[in-house]
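Attaching the record inline, Q. Sequence:
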Amino acid sequence: MKLRIFGSTRKIKEYYDQSKTLNVLLDNAISIQDFLERVCLVNSHKASSYESLLLMQEACLKSKNLEKELGISADFFTFLKNNEYLFSFFKELSLEKKSINDLKNNDYYASYNEHLEILKEVFDHYLALLKKNHLHDDLSLVKDYLINFDFIDEYDVIIYNLEGFLSKFEEDLFLQIADYKEVILCFRVSRFNYEYFSKFDFLKDMELETEFYYEVSLNEGKILKKEKIYTQNSQIKVKSFEIRSLQCAFAMDEVSHFLREGLKPENIVIITPDESFCDLLRLFDKNNMFNFASGINIKESLFYQKLKILYDSANSESFYYQKQEDYFLNEDTIFDYHNTFLHYLNLDFENFKSQFDQQFNFEQFENLIIQFLENEKQELISIIQKELYFIKELLKNQSLKVKELLQLFFIHISNLNLSYVGGGKVTVMGLLESRGLHFDGVVIVDFNEDVIPKRSINELFLNNEIRKKAGLISYERRENLQRFYYENLIKNAKKVSISYVENEEQRKSRFLDDLDIKYFYEKPNSKTYLDALKLDYQSTRLNLEPIKAPVLKHDPFEKPLSFTRFSLLLNQKRTYYYRYILNLKEARALSYESNFKNEGNFIHKILEIYYKENSKNYFDCSIFNKLLQRESSKYGISDLELEILKIRFENFYKNEQKHFDEGYKVDKLEWPPADLKLPPKVLRFGKESIRLIGVIDRIDYREGENFIIDYKSGKIPIDSYQLAFYQALYDENAQAFFYDLKRMKFTKEKAKSLIDLKESLKNLLDESKEEMEFENKKDNYCPYKLIYKKEVK
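Structure, as predicted:
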């Protein structure tokens, strides 16, 4: 009886599919990962990924110089985000049966060996913690395993179809097994892996040749089978695009060509070196042409989105929750990212926030998670229940905070995928998934230098020279393996199409020329592919011609005139037209920051409250600071911003005291108040008149003299009519100043005079008697710009 070992489950499926075609009984097949778990016995339980993470973090905490010397923090959240570097580094050393001492060399920088000692200390602590907890994982397995002969004895022959590298651990394991059972290694030799295979001790006496398939007996040390590999005379088309999404149209177009030329859809594949391209391609796959082998990432599920927005909101120090039932209907709401999603998904943020820093046992955490699984598909529920089982084991002897548990939870489920249901027969997969598979039609997208070759995170610790001297896999060998995979895909296909993005930031991968394949470059017609991506293309004809400025007769003085309307009439008539004549409300853009973090509004309100409740001619910093502290939480002001405001208002105190020492005192705030119901102020121009309305921030008084103040927390306007407008509104003889709340001083910045204002109002009055062209002098900040400019970017 034979056992066949393959590098991937998809290769196993392809192998078993032969039985349907050939109508024969095939040998048992297993993946290399499953084989290693079955054949290696260890007298301990396998650590869950959660347990491994926490033990590695504990090992890092025991190594005092890790963060100082290597910049690797053992802080819980920071470590969780960066743990992959450590695990990957240690795993590579373990599989290649190398110690950290093998990496030491006095030729490198002075502290190099010291850094390696720190890493060795971390690794030793980690292995000790595993042993202490009666656990093992991939890092410790290499040293502690025994061969499961009961499993081996079920088979007469073990055949391993090798599609990549054979680690030192795997090499030694198969040679050990070969002492008891017949072991056959099957592999293909290319110019990209010839050097690698020629260095194996059990192959060194064999004269290997490139472009041949071999079956070698490890027991007898001889070649059992040698076959020439004949490649297809592939037609290879290459195109470049300025925009990445156009490759979606290219991929669909090439698949259609392949089908029309007789290729079966199940024998066509789209290779995505960067799997994020799948998300893009799925958006355009309206006819369900494709079957996405990797499935759909769990991050796209409603379950994940709900949990993540709650976590992100609760974990943000600056977030302020707007508790209001009419969040979407209230015209004053300016949407921010977190509040918008919390309200849209109808989530109980306050209850979640109250638990966020609490220690939870398993039952509490399970109840929290289960409430988000309502109406989800059974597959997702099963995946989450499996993850909860690992967390249950983790929390047997300890408890963690909710935010810590969720951070762990997100790290582990974020790479999980759900099955893609309802797709077509054309497969979309990554490069590694395609190992050993043959397709008649191959489309490869994103053939760019930033994606191909795929980089290894192990480059963080070891440069190429060190790798070579230590006997680890070099970057060249790793890249050659990727070349080998691409070469097999391309040379075994009848038709191949390759695309890449070419613009100022991206260029094609050097692999395209390294593969030594003949291809023809076809200059793309981007407009054709762009048109192909449009929905309802035949019936859609967009008119993107800008709209001319409207010309019409309008009386802006029919209603009392505010300064905002007056300013728009002077400089932004087009904006005035849409806002006050057509009465169109401005679009409320989705912002990542909360509206209540508007510092200017907060300061205005605090100053109003302070002078209503306290002395009108003295500014007390201690009272003001208490007021800041009291009101800040209502407006989402962070602790840091609060402290900065306290420091800034020390200068405000100095300026105020100087002002009050000159005899002024605060007389009116936010004048006129709404309940006063004063009639508009009337300015007369001969037989005609203009009515003015507005609200002034503050008016101070001194011995028959009024002092008008307008607070400005942002940029002070130059050549503005605003101060003159307030003089006309309240007292033409008053002084008027902007209060610069950044520099904490009174300023005018070349403000227009009252005479200038009246002249400008008179000109507008005359202009309104005829038709007016409603065009902006500058429209950079016009909220209606998209309507009339039609600039789609």
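The first strand starts at residue 2 and ends at 6. Residues 340 and 590 are 8 Å apart (CA to CA).

More tomorrow.
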